[in-house]
Write a structure and sequence with these properties.
It is a single chain. The chain starts with 14 loop residues before the first strand and ends with a helix. It contains 7 helices and 5 strands; from the N terminus they run βαβαβαβαβααα. It is of the alpha/beta class and 229 residues long. The chain has a 5-stranded parallel beta sheet, with helices on both faces. Helix content is 34%, strand content 15%. The protein is globular. Bound molecules: flavin mononucleotide (FMN).
Length: 229
Amino acid sequence: MSQTPDLSESTEVQVLGISGSPILDSNTDRAIKRILLHTGLRTEFIKLSDYRFSPCRACLGCVNLNECVLDDDARDLSRKFREVPAFVIGGYTPYSSLDSRTKAFMERMYCFRHISGGNAGKKGVSVITSACPPGVEGIPPAAEIAGQQVGMWMMEEGIENLGSMTLLGNVPCIRCGRGDECPFSGVKMIHGEKATVESIGVNTFEENEALTRQAKELGEKLREAVLVQ
Ligand SMILES: Cc1cc2nc3c(=O)[nH]c(=O)nc-3n(C[C@H](O)[C@H](O)[C@H](O)COP(=O)(O)O)c2cc1C
């Protein structure tokens, strides 16, 4: 008789979706949810902005326990993360690097690493949303930088990186109401002096067929990786 549990029948969450985007129903959220949907597995989606937690304090209080000693909502997050074999993590790129919630989440999962390598063997997929397309003169390649940060975390933790997708999101200045007149507007900073809120339009993940296809492929990849474990 096979000893392999049939995870497709499991009642436990098999894939956790973690969004660092605080924006309601953001592109990041929807892309993560689409990937989760395509896993066909039991999933849970969480938004880090619903939790209050600090970055790692490097106190090393977790060394002997494999548990973080800080008393905040990352306790709930780490309980969820510890249990799942796979996850999708998504962040966005304020000031051309990974957002602070996603970064703090990654840091706090460090507690599982000592001796036991508690994060090793998990399967991960990442989503990065940036408002600035690559190649704009004078602006760092935000998505590439953030993607490297998440990729490096996975590598250091022994997480199997199954792939990543990059979305073009929206600079907040397109919805603040002053995007065309503000001298500090990201609309002009990214798209040039002549750009307006109307001329650059709103980027919507679902309207990009290549991205929705990629989300499907990543979901299916996660499914396969979880079921063969
Ligand atoms: C304070 C702030 C600073 C930002 N700075 C950058 C930036 O430097 N580069 C960039 O590509 N996007 C920047 N963004 C835009 C975010 O990347 C954008 O909100 C994201 O693409 C939207 O993703 P979402 O639709 O998933 O929320 C910034 C956003 C905020 C709120």
